[in-house]
Amino acid sequence: MYQQNPDPTGSLLLSALLALIPLVTVLVLLGGLRWKAHWAGLTALALSLGIAVAVYSMPLGTALNSAAFGAATSVLVVLWITFNAIWIYDLTVESGHFTVLRRAFSSISDDPRVQAIVIAFSFGALLEALAGGGGPVAICSVMLIALGVAPMKAAALALVADTAPVAFGGMGNPITVLGTVTGLPAEQFGAMAGRQVSLLAVLVPFVLVFIVDGRRGVREVWPIALAAGLSFGVTQYLVSNFVSYKLCDIIAAVVSVGAVIAAVRLRKPAGVPVTVGGGSPDDTRDDSRRDVAVAFAPYAIIVAVFSLAQVTAVKTLLEKATTKFAWPGLHITGANGKPVATVYTLNPLSATGTLLLVSGLLSLLVLRVGLGRAVAIYGRTIRRFGWAILAILAVFALSYVMNFSGQITTLGVWLAGTGAFFAFLSPVVGWFGVTITGTDAGSNALFGTLQTTAAQQLDASPFLFGASNSSGGVMAKMISPQNLAIGTAAAGLVGKEGELFRRVFGWSLLLLLLMCVLAYLQSTPILGWMVP
Question: What is the pTM of this model?
Answer without folding.
Answer: 0.81
